Amino acid sequence: MSVRVVTLRLASILVVVAYAAAVRAQGLPSEPIALAGGRVTVSGDVSATFGSPDPGFFNYTDYEHSALRLVRIDVAAAAKAGPHFSLLGEVRSENIDTLQAYALFARIRPWTGRDFDIQVGRIPPTFGAFGRRAYANDNPLIGYPLAYQYLTSLRPDALPASADELLQKRSLGWLVRYSVGAPNVDRGVPLVSALRWDSGVQVHAGAGIFSAAAAITAGTVSNPLFSDDNGGRQFAGRFEVRPIAGLIAGTSFARGRFVSDAAVRSALGDAAPSEDFRQTAWGADAEYSHGYYLVRFESIVSAWRVPTIRAPAIDEPLRAVSTSVEGRYKIVPGLYAAARVEHLGFSDVVGSTSTLPWDAPVTRVEVGTGYSLQRNLLLKISYQHNTRDGGVLRRIENLGAGQLVFWF
Amino acid sequence: MRNLTRTQREPRTQRERRALDVKVRVFPFVSLLASVSFVTFVSFAAVPSVGVGAARNGVIRGRVEVRRVMPQVERRPGVTDLGAPAARDVDDRMRSVVYLESAPRRAFEVDEGGRAVMDQRNETFVPHLLAIMTGTTVDFPNSDKFYHNVFSLSKPARFDLGRYSAGHSRSIRFDRPGIVRVFCDIHSHMSAFILVFSHPYFAVTDSQGRYHIDNVPPGNYGVIAWNEGNPSEPKAVVVPDGGAAELDFALR
Asked: A370: exposed, middle or buried (C-beta count within 10 Å: 0-12, 13-18, 19+)?
């Protein structure tokens, strides 16, 4: 079935669903639900995405979930206990699956007159810009940026024995198996996970046009964890400046132990230290908006060190670089157009017979539009052109998708 | 609904009213649309029995008691924020609008074309409630240090003023009567009401709930009080020649 036919069918379905939802939404809340005199507030984000089949697995967030075929329900709540303390949490369901707690943390503000907070628990991402606006309502398009969604072939719990084995797995990050460590097939990791949050302590401070945050957590930016699997901690920091209205520039850094103890033991024996096998990530981002347009840029460099047990060895850190430019323009009230151009590249690895990027580089162009049926009911349609340079899966894929977003 | 003057001069038939009623039930796309339709429909339906000769105009005054104040719209839980948000001001939701259900014919010949201001200050619209006549231009200055983006998807005035910073202002002229809900695209807890009338016989209550509608030609009228989307039942009042009529409301 051609992309055009799929897109037309999707558009027809969405128009019907959108109309029904618009009628139905009259009886639903349009503002956060406030309880106990405003001390408890509850909000929700619901998005239903219908996209064309993705046999190249460009948009998968794991083997079962594609970002283009997903019903996601988020319910967030905040409970304030005075001016110094509040408890925040979020539960999420994907494809009407079981509810999972994505966030649950205490926010402590020692001095009410100062912009200084301590957050403890399953905390929001410190690193990067997109991770904190990964809700469908904040994303002008339907797909996620590659750095936050595309699954590389690396796993924290299973390892390639050599550079050759790693090169054999190019483009298979959606479901990959290695000969060392965990024997099961599982998904690889993205550069930075936007879909899971890490656990730890975060400190945030702001003064004038500057703000900064630092966190110590159990996992890494590509593999956030609730309970640690290697006894190491990640340090992450972010610095942000807002020199003029509408301009936000930020830089981020994170470094933490990536490979699980079990995988290191499988590779190097019981006595091997796991602290050498880290993920280090740097990020730079900027956003500028004025009038009816908004432009965002984000670039992330990530380097992983992993052990190998056979020649040819993986000597250098495995690097990945993502660059994304996104824009949105409001055409008329309630209607906007948006586009994102991005590339995800990988460093070369020397194998027995060839030298190749350790995973297949991906380029994506996504264009789309959004129309507000109501203030809190948004219909989005987008078109994606994905290209993959190498690997064993399909290399070019054009995908259409529609999304209905409701929030309160 | 678009042309209150024409409709006022030629009242709708029962059939037309039923058709409009059916439309409202079948296409409830925007919740406010129902309110807007209600206000304008009632305005069309009521026929004033007024004498507008050389008589002296009078005043309608009184007080509106709001028994159940609509709660402040809270911020959405800032689960993704790195810190707690700054404090913001509280909307004044006690104020109401009192207006004539139907107005004398000559009222629609007025074209005021004035200006009004709705400020954006400390993440609130000030005032939270504005009542204006058609033809009025409303300025929306930004008095905060950060961007705001005023917009409305209401049928009488669908607009988006884009993002602009402190010290700047943008404006929009309101040419259609009805209820316009105003929001900020960046701060979802910011909202305001603008009630646009085709006639000048309306007033916004003060902080004590008091109001007075001046220069009302003597006659019999229906008067409605409105607060945060809740209109009262119309109350009958007789405005004497050159005198004042007292009328109080209690809104739930």
From this structure: buried
